[in-house]
Design a protein that fits this description.
The complex is a heterodimer. By secondary structure, chain A is α+β, with helices and mostly antiparallel strands. Chain A contains eleven helices and 21 strands. Chain A has two domains: about 5-230, P-loop containing nucleotide triphosphate hydrolases (Rossmann fold); about 230-380, Nucleic acid-binding proteins (OB fold (Dihydrolipoamide Acetyltransferase, E2P), Beta Barrel), CATH 2.40.50. Chain A has a six-stranded mixed beta sheet with strand order 6-7-8-3-9-10, sandwiched between helices. In chain A, strands 13-12-11-14-20-21 form a six-stranded antiparallel beta sheet. In chain A, a hairpin with a 2-residue loop joins strand 11 and strand 12 (about 250-255). The longest helix of chain A is centred in the middle third of the chain and has 18 residues, at about 165-185. Chain A is elongated, with a radius of gyration of 25 Å. Chain B is mostly helical. Chain B has a single domain (about 85-310), classed as Orthogonal Bundle (MetI-like fold), CATH 1.10.3720.10. Chain B is flat and about 80 Å long. Classes of the chains: A alpha+beta, B mainly alpha. Chains A and B meet through strand 6 and helix 3 of A and helix 10 and helix 11 of B. Bound molecules: adenosine-5'-diphosphate and magnesium ion (MG). Magnesium ion (MG) binds near residues 42 and 43 of chain A.
Chain lengths: ~375, ~300
């Protein structure tokens, strides 16, 4: 149980820069999730902390100790691998208690401790099974148990749920969270699945291209994305991005779709003072879909609808020319529309984001976005 | 048939349910059903005639005594005679020494070299190729090469015997050295096989398992004993079986280097069979030895697998 600090960590493989400049601190007992697309350097970042990969530059500290050159087995860190990495010739309890065996703990104690840990991950009835006979979910629990048995200072997990089916994933997710909270062990968890990251992490570390894009709580990262990458990566379905020009209070798409002309409220327009051309980001649920013409609405045509139970996703085409804007809209399933129907969209303006075209940085809105969401929800009801 | 047709497509129905199809259709159906057997039949026949026929023939021969005027059925007489045959016992003992020493050294040395190769050493590809050369030469060629090396005043005497002992060693002419020399040659020839197999095995140990053990705090030695060795267990058994079975049958090398001599110091069992069969024309006794050897090999191989608890 310890604080983890990455200080300007860089890792190159030949000419490939896997990780460019990682600076981040994970507090004692915190559950940090490294999130980013495949190949962005998450695994490399994790392995540097484990000691399995030696960083090209920078230092890593556990508490106040510089461990950059410390052998992995002396770091008191446990790791769960994506492939589970169970020892194929050992049975379940031998696998779980292997960290104790190398420490010279006697067999009786090992078995006893393995039983305790197995109870925590709910596989006590499997203790004497061969690992070859286990299902994916059971293997994952054995791997978790093996990581827990030594009560390490830090837990590392590299996409531990990636190979499980959807239902098992959700189940294991909540179990991992409960275990982590009970044990209070500092945890770094890697995933490319933003939903998994949002539900698990106290702190999200969003990465792209070898660099950290944003560090923050799941709420913060969702509602106040630092830049266009984070805004697009977090949230499902993804945010709609439209490059617009501002003419006084009115914004229009730079490319075509004359139907898309929205008059901004004074307060919202004020945010974008000094930005004549920028990109707006609108999450699908921040559009409102109408079946009849309304004030300040964008006319469009339904391309396809995807029912999702209480809600539905509707792809709307705006503009009749060859290159229409395609917007994804989330609407209640009570709205009954079909392909080629004419619809009107209004935007919950206070919830949109603007992004600078050059830097991709979000143009600050001022105030707390979450309060705005709450307010606009109350208004809707 | 009824259940078949129930689920079959329309065209299948037509074929299967037509109870009164002509002989041509029946033949086609039969061929369709048995095609896999027909196609493998030639290979099976060849293999069968090359393994089982000679085996059965040997068994038959071993039950007879061969005399100038023909042969006489003696039942298990030849086998009973083997029990009290001193030459046979000596050759068993020589074979035993040969197999244990040669395979033992080949395995340990080969595994050690494989471990070295598995490290990220320089010029690994070159070393791998060089090490494999002895294995691809034919036993006869190897026998001839080493006969030259072992010859009195040959290369080995030149670099070892004369400088160190001041005389020729008599590598293959002195009874106390001959077997060792034959064993050395076998080691030279077959260590590469062990290297090859064990190196492939070491490369197949998944990185994540190795790394999991590192994270679990295992030392280098513990990782070798607890992870690598058990992981390679079935390969180890496999390579030992291959080597033991092959070493039990060693012939060409011995024939070329020593002809089993001096005396009976290198007279391995297949050499003894050769002597009995082709010098003394005692085919029955030789065949009985061959069959006994086969039984021993089978028992050894099966018990290896059993002891190691390996499934292939
Ligand atoms: N051992 C390696 N040798 C060479 N390149 C590597 C190695 N490991 C990772 N990389 C490269 O570094 C980049 C980051 O990889 P990785 O950390 O595995 O990403 P992630 O886990 O986010 O998918 C990738 O471009 C990958 O190809
Ligand atoms: Mg990865």
């Amino acid at each position: 149980m310890v604080r983890v600090t990455y200080d300007s960590i860089k890792k190159k493989y030949g000419d490939t820069v896997a990780v460019e400049d990682i600076k981040v601190t994970v507090d004692d007992g915190e559950f940090a999730v490294l999130l980013g697309p495949s190949g962005c350097g998450k695994t490399t970042t994790l392995r540097c902390l484990a000691g399995l990969t030696e960083p090209t530059e920078g230092t890593i500290r556990l508490g106040d100790h510089d461990v950059t050159d410390v052998h992995p087995k002396n770091r008191n860190i446990a790791m769960v691998f994506q492939q589970f990495a169970l020892y194929p010739h050992m049975n379940v309890w031998q696998n779980i208690s292997y960290p104790l065996k190398v420490d010279g703990v006697d067999k009786e104690t090992r078995r006893e401790r393995a039983r305790e840990v197995a109870e925590m991950v709910e596989i006590e009835e499997l203790l004497d099974r061969d690992v070859g006979q286990l299902s994916g979910g059971q293997r994952q629990r054995v791997a978790l148990g093996r990581a827990m048995i030594r009560r390490p200072a830090v837990f590392l997990m590299d996409e531990p749920l990636a190979s499980l089916d959807a239902k098992l994933k959700v189940d294991m997710r909540s179990r991992i969270k409960v275990l982590q909270q009970d044990l209070g062990i500092t945890t770094l968890y890697v995933t490319h699945d933003q939903e998994e990251a949002m539900t698990l992490g106290d702190k999200l570390i969003v990465m792209d291209d070898g660099n950290i894009q944003q560090v923050g709580s799941p709420d913060k990262v969702y509602h106040e994305p630092k830049n266009r990458f984070v805004a697009g990566f977090i949230g499902s379905p993804t945010m709609n991005f439209i490059e617009v020009e501002r003419d006084g209070r009115t914004i229009r798409p730079v490319h075509g779709a004359a139907e898309f002309a929205v008059d901004l409220d004074d307060e919202v327009a004020a945010r974008y003072e000094g930005h004549d051309r920028f990109e707006i980001g609108v999450r699908p649920q921040y559009f409102k879909l109408h079946t009849a013409q309304t004030d300040n609405a964008i006319r469009g045509q339904v391309k396809v609808t995807e029912p999702m139970g209480d809600e539905q996703l509707i792809d709307v085409l705006v503009g009749e020319d060859e290159d229409p804007l395609e917007l994804t809209v989330k609407a209640p399933s009570t709205i009954d529309v079909a392909r080629n129907d004419e619809v009107w969209l209004t935007i919950q303006q206070e919830l949109i984001h603007g992004f600078d075209l050059d830097s991709g940085e979000r143009i600050a809105e001022g105030g707390d976005q979450r309060q705005r969401v709450a307010a606009s929800r109350a208004e809707a009801e | 048939m009824a259940t078949d047709t129930q689920f079959g497509s329309a065209s299948e129905d037509a074929i299967v349910s037509a109870g009164d199809e002509g002989p041509r259709e029946r033949l086609l159906l039969w061929i369709d059903d048995h095609l896999k057997w027909l196609l493998t039949l030639p290979a099976v026949l060849v293999l069968f005639s090359l393994t089982f026929v000679p085996l059965l023939r040997a068994l038959e021969i071993s039950l007879h005594n061969y005399i100038p005027t023909g042969r006489r059925f003696v039942g298990i007489g030849n086998y009973v005679d083997l029990l009290s045959n001193g030459d046979f016992h000596t050759s068993l003992w020589v074979t035993f020494k040969f197999v244990v020493a040669a395979v033992g050294v080949e395995f340990l040395l080969g595994f050690a070299i494989a471990l070295l190769l598995n490290k990220k050493i320089k010029l690994r590809g070159l070393w791998q190729t060089l090490i494999l050369i002895p294995m691809i030469l034919s036993p006869t060629v190897i026998g001839l090469i080493w006969r030259l090396l072992y010859a009195p005043s040959g290369l080995l005497d030149f670099i070892i015997g004369q400088p160190l002992l001041g005389q020729n060693v008599g590598w293959i002419s002195e009874p106390q050295f001959a077997l060792i020399s034959v064993i050395l040659t076998d080691i030279w020839q077959w260590t590469p096989l062990v290297v090859l197999v064990m190196f492939a095995g070491l490369q197949s140990v998944p990185d994540h398992i190795r790394e999991a053990a590192i994270m679990d705090g295992a030392s280098r030695r513990q990782r070798f004993l607890h992870i690598t060795l058990p992981y390679l267990k079935s390969l180890i058994v496999l390579v030992l079986i291959i080597r033991v079975v092959d070493a039990l049958r060693v012939f060409a090398k011995v024939y070329i280097l020593t002809r089993g001599g001096p005396g009976s110091s290198t007279n391995v069992i297949s050499m003894q069979m050769y002597r009995v069969a082709f010098r003394f024309s005692n085919y029955g006794e030789a065949a009985a030895m061959a069959v006994s050897l086969l039984v021993v090999v089978l028992i050894l191989a099966m018990s290896f697998v059993k002891i190691a608890g390996v499934e292939f």
